[in-house]
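Instructor's aside before we start: the two examples that follow are unrelated to each other. I chose them only because their records fit on one page, so don't look for a connection. First example below.
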Amino acid sequence: MQKLTNKEEEIMHILWKLDKAFVKDVLAEIETDKPHYNTLSTIIRNLEEKGYVSYNAYGKTHQYYPIVSKEDYKKRFMNTAIENYFNSSYKNVVSFFAKEEKISVEELKEIIEIIEKKK
């Protein structure tokens, strides 16, 4: 699975949300920094080349849909981030968020409960 650019990732989030969409549907979902229609079409074709989306053809127009699930992408993205930035240590991930005050004690207790329930 190839890495996505920020814009490609933004478009994938829209496609995951819509499930199936024409370029004009995706364009309508973009709230800020709307690209030109042709630029967006190129981005979506790049996603197709990278193996993230496919399409159904209706004459000259295409309806695109994701072929990589959001869950699969999230797993790969998280695993890569944890490997690259936290030395493959989930403890380092949690410690980072605790130090940055992005996770509360209550949330940590909930995480521990989840882990204990799986045992």
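Example two begins here.
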Amino acid sequence: MERQEKKGKIYLLLFGLTAAFLCAAGLLCLRDRVFAVPDTYTVKTERAAREDVIPERTLVDINTATTQELEELMGIGPVLAQAIVDYRTEHGPFSSVDELLEVSGIGAGKLAGLEGQVTVGDEEGSE
């Protein structure tokens, strides 16, 4: 009889521990729902934040741009920027954006990537 009472006490203890665990888990879940951040906030990506700061991109004049200004163009690093300046110094101002194809390191793909980013000044019909 004493053995059955011990089993009963062990089962009762296990039941109590299980109930306490389930209550704690339920409270944690309830706490997350009750104190959750409301769904009314907005997350801006880095790109969207940048667009707020710089809404419009200005064209870079390849006839007057410094190497630093050229490096800011997508796909133009320090070596290519220097090559553009060196070509301009040696051959004079660019007559069109397409003349960039004459610069070592610039191919049709790179030129297409620069479309809408560069110009040759006030000349009509330039990109």
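Residues 1-41 form one domain.
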